[in-house]
Design goal:
By secondary structure, the chain is α+β, with helices and mostly antiparallel strands. The protein has helices at residues 5-16, 31-39; strands spanning 21-27, 43-50, 52-60.
């Protein structure tokens, strides 16, 4: 099970970059990471393929 490291990192990044638009690119099959980003308000902005399908998420912070 997770140790909360991703959540701590996400909270830090969101606080550090308050007022900025934040982009994150994640492999489409990385469901845990996608769910984590959605939990913090990231929305899908774009899908693309290069070796593997990727999704770009964005959050207006």
């Amino acid at each position: 099970m997770g140790k909360g490291i991703a959540s701590k990192l996400m909270k830090y990044v969101l606080e550090k970059f308050k007022g900025y638009k934040i982009y994150s690119c994640i492999a489409k099959d990385n469901i845990p990471s996608l769910k984590s980003h959605e939990k913090y308000g990231f929305k899908e902005a774009y899908q693309f393929t290069k070796d593997k399908e990727q999704i770009m998420l964005v959050k207006e912070n």
